[in-house]
Design brief:
Number of strands: 10
CATH class: Alpha Beta
Structural class: alpha+beta
Oligomer: single chain
Number of domains: 1
Strand order of the largest sheet: 1-2-4-3
Largest sheet: 4 strands, antiparallel
Shape: globular
């Protein structure tokens, strides 16, 4: 796995591109306001600290605007190449993911899970507004990148092995992302990890 783009404080254009891709994978949608071209998305209030920290750590204040009271974010698409990248995801009003056309990295996927994921009883459920015909192929790409089972459902994807999702992230991600992934862990998940660490220490 290429980990060169997984560190916080990465160059602004790389951090912006990763956030852009995560937003397109999630519930982001193209929005035009006068002459401005924006990629817009809603977020849960508990995601606001992560988004603010990501923006500040990577110097993206000029490119990403947060409206906390309305729980909305806007990525400004002034860069022509970024705007053209966004347009490739649309077929009319439908936002589609085609593995042959869209290349997403491990970090893009992790950001997608962090921003749009919710912990349910037995899974992390990640919401998306991708066209329903894209979900199965998208789930397959996620399985390949994460090395985990991903189950497509209506307007969302489910990941049941949250412990492995977190442990795999520890190997490559920065503290900001790992802290957010840890928020998905249940008390039972934490006990599984603690017991695994204890058993490993005894073997050593």
């Amino acid at each position: 796995m290429d980990t060169t783009d997984l560190n916080i404080n990465q160059p602004p254009h790389k951090a912006l591109k990763a956030l852009l891709m995560a937003t397109l994978l999630g519930s982001g949608d193209l929005y035009k306001k006068g002459e401005e071209k924006l990629l817009y998305f809603q977020f849960e209030r508990n995601k606001s600290a992560f988004l603010n920290n990501y923006i500040l750590a990577n110097g993206l204040q000029e490119f990403v605007k947060i409206d906390l009271p309305k729980q909305q974010a806007f990525i400004v698409l002034e860069d022509h190449d970024l705007y053209q990248e966004v347009l490739k995801w649309y077929d009319g009003h439908n936002k589609r993911f085609l593995p042959s056309n869209h290349s997403v990295s491990y970090h893009d996927i992790i950001l997608f899970i962090i921003i749009f994921g919710k912990r349910r009883l037995e899974s992390v459920t990640v919401e998306t507004t991708l066209d329903k015909n894209s979900l199965r192929s998208f789930a397959y790409v996620l399985e390949t990148k994460l090395d985990l089972s991903v189950i497509p459902d209506k307007m969302k994807l489910k990941i049941h092995d949250i412990v492995s999702l977190f442990i795999n992230g520890l190997k490559t991600l920065g503290m900001l992302e790992c802290t957010e992934l840890a928020n998905f862990l249940s008390e039972q998940d934490k006990r599984i990890i603690a017991n695994g660490v204890k058993a490993y220490a005894q073997i050593g």
